[in-house]
Design brief:
This protein is mainly β. The protein is built from 11 helices and 27 strands. A 14-stranded antiparallel β-barrel has the order 1-4-5-6-7-9-12-15-16-17-18-21-22-24. It has a 3-stranded antiparallel β-sheet with strand order 3-2-23.
Length: 756
């Protein structure tokens, strides 16, 4: 092996490999409101409610390279012609010695034709295609890195056993064809906006390979002589990774599938400021404006993998060799490398196999704050996954945090990306969006200003955007030009864009009264009271009326116009000057004290049903003739009252029972005789008890006692319909239930004479 071979390989892998994640390509634009179809690779939901109606990417390219071990001097970065000098590494490469493992990553992307379209204001669809490539080196110990950098010619490492755990190198190159769907997710308030998106990926592998050594143990015996001690190696490359016959589109993988998923939330406190009216529709949201104060997105990217056919000459093996003279090894191609491994480490015969290369899964968060007037501040933490040692065949990104102030408008945008990665390496760059051309670098500023660089990147894209916009309305009247019959003169939607100064629905060109609202049938002249009679013919122009009354009203519809009607709000009769007589007794209602019941004039229209000279509304017994002195009720004589009182006072029952004692019969007989003699009287019997015992039982007892008195009176000739019974149990005491005397008074059946 040539002395500088491993050193050259180290430079290639650690200087040319990139540290920043591929999904960070075009970073200042990917988080922009004008990202279009290229934004789906970072956030699938971004195309919903996009500023684009249609967006096409013609082509684009991105490449990033960095590591945490070898740094290139600033002046050498911009003199690529010197990179082939014999002493280039010694003169221009700085090595970082801090006792930590070394790592690096290369990432490239070629954008193929892609497009997106807003299907509706809430739904969007895109197709994108690209070719991606990535190389990872992880957990390269500082000792091994130094041995390789010194071309195995550093006596300080001779005769020392060195170890390197979990050393790995992976590469994956593939084409992907992506279908993305995104839509708005309705929320109760317009101040809060949510959208989601999903990308389904069809993957086709181009080339891939991996090498993983869990426990590498070796000793540099002397210059160019090495011993390796029982180190298990996982090794595999795709079948077409052959430097002599390699065909990049000679696919050697099964079709693979992947998935991206993302959500975006926007806080829109001033959402009403973005509403407009067009063509009769109110409350529309402007499609050409960014409406949020704060936007937060989260996305899970690159789930999935590809199954590659494994090259026949690559397989797992154990490296165990003593005093291997590297000067006898000639490696000029991958085939030479495979043959050397097979012959040196006695590979057995193997059959064709396959291996699964996982995509570089990552979790991205995007936080964007609208500073106003086109200025924004973005922070995008990016969490790389698949970085463990359990899976040997995978590529991965590096975890980074990006802060990007930017300015953006329709045809121009500028951003200043600033990043720091998990290795503590910081960089700053600049990006410009100049109409259809995007160009930028996340590291250009730090590489120009700093003395040395661990990373470098560049990206460029060419696209054709078609922006969303308000319908054209050159007179600004809220009627789009395509529907406006008077496109150069402000008008109204109702008049199809033509002017109507008084707003009466009659265009000014046809309105004989253009400054006063009127009616079309009167050529735009007014009918103030709206009665169908134009003002110049209306005797009551300020009050809606009828033609037969020359425009004056008849509010109650009785055929008498209001100005002649003494009761204009009530339908009446001509003989009463328009006032009503509802009961038809010849007395108008406003003079009738009983307007709903016919009555004689002497009682002011109120009736006297029983003819006792007391009108019904003053008669407490309107169906029974009485006296005026007794408010229309019959007079009850003194001796009749005495019979009633005696029957009440002498009434007694068996204790706790509804059986009348015989001592009460005489007074009840007198009461019965009185009721028979007075057939127009009715007696009301009301039963009561004291509070001794259960309330329910007392209620039943009071009922039964009242019924017993009723039954007795009926037995003495009183008609049943002349007797009314009620009972209330213990609920209506007339004396104190806490004394025997009071309880005695409360055990009673009251008797009252009632008249209809």
């Amino acid at each position: 092996m040539k002395r500088y071979l491993l050193q050259s390989m180290l430079y290639v892998l650690l200087i040319v490999v990139g540290t920043f994640a591929q999904a960070q390509d075009f970073l200042p634009f990917s988080i922009s409101n004008y990202s279009g179809v290229s934004g789906v690779h970072l956030q699938p939901a971004s195309i919903a409610d996009s500023r684009y109606k249609f967006d096409v990417v013609l082509t684009g390219f991105s490449a990033q390279a960095a590591n945490n071990y070898l740094a290139m001097k600033r002046e050498a970065i911009f003199r690529p012609g010197s990179w082939n000098d014999v002493n280039f590494g010694t003169d221009n490469i700085y090595r970082t010695l801090n006792g930590k493992d070394k790592q690096g990553m290369l990432s490239t992307v070629v954008m193929l034709p892609s497009f997106m379209v807003n299907l509706t204001p809430q739904h969007a669809l895109s197709f994108s295609s690209r070719i991606r490539g990535q190389v990872n080196i992880d957990r390269l110990s500082e000792d091994l890195a130094e041995v390789m950098a010194e071309s195995f010619d550093n006596p300080d490492f001779y005769q020392i056993i060195l170890n390197n755990s979990n050393l790995s190198a992976q590469t994956n190159w593939w084409a992907e064809f992506n279908f993305t769907y995104a839509q708005e997710i309705p929320l109760p308030s317009d101040k809060h906006f949510l959208k989601g998106g999903i990308t389904l990926k069809y993957l086709q592998g181009i080339a891939s390979g991996y090498s993983y050594i869990r426990d590498l143990s070796f000793r540099l015996e002397e210059k160019d002589v090495i011993s390796i001690f029982k180190s298990d190696v996982n090794y595999g490359i795709s079948g077409n990774l052959n430097s002599k016959t390699f065909q990049p589109f000679d696919f050697v993988s099964d079709p693979g599938f992947g998935l991206d998923l993302g959500f975006v939330y926007e806080y829109r406190p001033d959402i009403d400021d973005y509403r407009y009216t067009m063509d009769g529709k109110q409350g529309l949201l402007r499609p050409d404006k960014n409406k949020y104060l704060l936007r937060v997105g989260i996305s899970l990217l690159d789930l999935g993998g590809i199954n590659f056919k494994k090259d026949f000459h690559s397989q797992d093996f154990t490296a165990d060799i003593r005093n291997w003279d590297l000067t006898q090894v000639q490696i000029n191609s991958i085939e030479d490398f495979n043959d050397t491994l097979r012959n040196r480490f006695n590979f057995g015969q193997t059959v064709e196999e396959s291996f699964r290369m996982r995509l570089p899964t990552a979790l991205s968060l995007q936080v964007d704050y609208n500073l106003g007037r086109g200025f924004y501040l973005n922070m995008s933490p990016y969490l790389a996954m698949r970085k463990g040692t359990e899976t040997t065949s995978k590529t991965h990104y590096f975890t980074t945090v990006s802060v990007i102030p930017r300015y953006e408008m329709k045809w121009f945008g500028a951003g200043l990306p600033m990043q720091i990665d998990e290795n503590g390496k910081a960089q700053a760059g600049v990006a410009l969006r100049l109409g259809p051309v995007w160009v930028g670098s996340n590291s250009i500023l730090s590489n120009v200003i700093g003395s040395k660089s661990y990373n470098a990147d560049v990206y460029v894209m060419l696209k054709v955007p078609i922006f969303r916009h308000l319908p054209r309305d050159r007179d600004g009247d809220g009627v789009s030009d395509k529907l406006d019959k008077c496109p150069d003169t402000p008008g109204t939607w109702e008049q199809q864009g033509c002017a109507d100064r008084d707003g009466d629905g009659v265009p000014d060109a046809q309105d004989e009264c253009p400054d006063v609202p009127g009616l079309a049938k009167y050529n735009g002249c007014p009918d103030t009271d709206g009665d169908g009679i134009p003002d110049h013919l209306d005797e009551c122009p300020d009050k809606a009326g009828l033609p037969e009354f020359n425009g004056c009203p008849d509010t109650d519809g009785d055929g008498i116009p209001d100005h002649l009607d003494q009761c204009p709000d009530q339908a009446g009769l001509p003989e009463f000057d328009g006032c009503p007589d509802r009961d038809g007794d010849g007395i108008p209602d406003h003079l009738d004290e009983c307007p709903d019941v016919p009555g004689p004039a002497k009682f002011n229209g109120c009736p006297d049903t029983d003819g006792d000279g007391v009108p019904d509304h003053l008669d407490e017994c309107p169906k029974t003739p009485g006296t005026i002195a007794n408010k229309g009720c019959p007079e009850i004589k003194k001796e009749e009252k005495a019979i009633l009182t005696q029957a009440f006072e002498n009434l007694e029952f068996e204790s706790g029972r509804a059986i009348i004692r015989r001592s009460s019969y005489a007074s009840l007989d007198k009461l019965a005789a009185l009721l028979v003699a007075r057939p127009d009287w009715k007696v009301k019997l009301t039963g009561h008890t004291d509070n001794t015992g259960i309330a329910g039982n007392n209620m039943e007892l009071s009922k039964n006692r009242a019924q017993s008195v009723k039954d007795y009176l009926i037995s003495k000739g009183v008609k049943e319909y002349h007797i009314i019974t009620e009972w209330f149990g213990q609920t209506r005491p007339i004396a104190d239930n806490n004394t025997a005397e009071g309880r005695q008074k409360n055990r009673r059946v009251e008797m009252d004479i009632v008249f209809e």
